[in-house]
Amino acid sequence: MEGLFFNVNSGFLEGIARGYKAGILNQGHYASLTQCENLEDLKTQLSATDYGNFLANEPSPISTTTISDKATQILVDQFHFIRSNAVEPLCKFLDYITYGYMIDNVVLLITGTLHERDTHELLERCHPLGIFDTMPALCVATNVEELYHSVLVETPLAPYFRDCLSAADLDDLNIEIIRNTVYKAYLEDFYNFVGGLGSPTSEVMQTILAFEADRRTINITINSFDTELTKEQRAKLFPAIGRLFPEGNNALAKADDLEQARLVCDNISEYRSFFDSSSSAQASHDVGDLGVAALLEDRFFRMEVHLNKQAFMQQFQYGVFYSYMKLKEQEIRNVTWIAECIAQDARDRIQDFIPIF
Fold first, then answer.
1. What one-character DSSP code corresponds to residue 118?
2. CA–CA separation, 336 vs 323, rounded Å?
3. Which of 13, 147, 148, 214 is 20 to 30 Å from the Cα of 303, by its Cα?
């Protein structure tokens, strides 16, 4: 039934998103990029792709930061084009995508206010997709109490902050707890929203969001080892969705080391391979817990790419918009990584990116 009506309001935009996706760099492009001798060569190679002459007006020498910023701006412009042509419920779906970036931006402003930094300078470091109309109003706040109340009044994130936190919670020790608490509320809300949109959007998006929730649960667990975070506090940060929920979450809340976390994740076949690789790498290279966490993060990114590529296998659903954003972000990370390796002459690590197609 959804196929009968989906194209009336969203068929054009789905076609646009799939067209954008066709411009994502492939293995041939990456092979050319990794052979560049300097960033000027990289700029020339990128000009032959869908990026075009996006660096044409940039003075030499080009920095890797400039490449990343300009590539991100292309993605932002594409998103705003889709958002400006969307109608409900796609409008609301696209707004939910921006909330994740808004959370990072607000947490950045809170951190700056705690350290008495000029919040106007911090605005320049905010992700452009997380900028909202009333964000400059947050810069008026001179202390955390004022900032908290501004967030409650001026931002779309108000329900997440109001239900999870109070102004007394905003301090240096709690900043990552704040980020994870608010993100937990956001993920659960987004999950429930897409569930109400019906299949196939709910089927595609809930699979992706369930993985994102599990990834955050595992990362919180590993990063909380040997810290002041109690097991009770850790459990409160876990999203109440995902394939690990609820038994896996309960077990991870009680885990004391990486091995116990691995045993919990063995129950999910897809996650088992991540830890097997990490364990063997730790045994052979003695990389330590931090190295294992880095290896895990790499496996998580690869799984995220796989799930987002699968989203394009179905039509008449909104998951393609979310998945394109995530795939394009991974591409920008890849290009930035290659650019950094070229700039620092680290050729031995230039292949350590995650190809998409």
1. -
2. 20
3. 13
